[in-house]
Design goal:
Layout lengths: L6 H11 L2 H16 L2 E2 L7 H5 L7 E5 L24 H14 L10 H4 L3 E5 L4 E2 L11 H15 L4 E5 H5 L11 E5 L4 H4 L9 H11 L8
């Protein structure tokens, strides 16, 4: 399996590739992809990095697991391929953007447009077996993506981290709070959103305010 990773990230994550956990992880992933239907496609596993270089990263959104339905996942957290129906969490994300910024609800759930503006859409686990949520968790991906978060925290400044839900909030300990901006809220999933923990968080307008104050170009959400 050839894992395609953009050079800007590759040079910064090189130290991870030779470690035993990463070798075991790749062996596991290769076996899974050979034996079962898995998502995303192998050439899209590192899509989050390939659409958003280290240098360009100014916002980080952390998800947990890729979508496990047919053709949904394409390597960007919360994003869904092409013109497929929007999953419930993505629907609530778009609803919040509509309320927060008066931006029309979009037709496409493909968030490449965000990634190309400097939003790293990072799932903690980068692969999954079809129809088996969480099936590739605790195999090494979390060690790798934690290293990514630490690298951003150490080498950059004024990055906005959007931590939605209990799982993502735990990543705050990896982030230097005085160098960066951490916004937290409930998860956009219906279970959380319908209890009042998501809607009204204003994260998208707040992110743009922070970016503007730090001299960065704002995001067209």
């Amino acid at each position: 399996m050839k894992l395609v990773l953009e050079e800007d990230w590759r040079i910064r994550l090189e130290a991870q590739f030779g470690q035993p956990y990463f070798q075991e992880l790749i062996s596991f992933v290769e076996t899974e992809y050979d034996s079962f239907t898995c998502f995303p496609k192998s050439n899209e596993i590192f899509a989050a990095f390939n659409y958003c270089s280290f240098q360009d990263t100014k916002v980080v959104i952390i998800g947990q697991d890729p979508y496990h339905g047919i053709d949904q996942a394409h390597g960007l957290c919360f994003s869904v391929n092409g013109n497929l129906p929007h999953p419930p969490s993505l629907v609530n994300i778009f609803k919040e953007i509509n309320t927060d910024l008066d931006v029309p609800y979009p037709e496409s759930g493909n968030l490449e447009r965000w990634a190309k503006q400097g939003v790293l859409l990072l799932n903690a686990t980068l692969t999954v077996r079809a129809h088996k949520p969480g099936s590739h968790q605790k195999k090494g991906w979390e060690d790798f993506t934690d290293a990514v978060i630490k690298k951003i925290s150490e080498e950059k400044e004024n990055v906005v981290f959007l931590l939605w839900g209990g799982f993502a909030k735990k990543k705050a300990k990896l982030i230097h709070g005085e160098k960066h901006h951490i916004l937290t809220s409930g998860h956009p999933s219906p279970l959380s959103a319908n209890r009042g923990y998501w809607f009204g968080n204003g994260h998208f307008s707040r992110t743009n305010e922070i970016l503007k104050k730090s001299g960065n170009k704002t995001i067209i959400w």
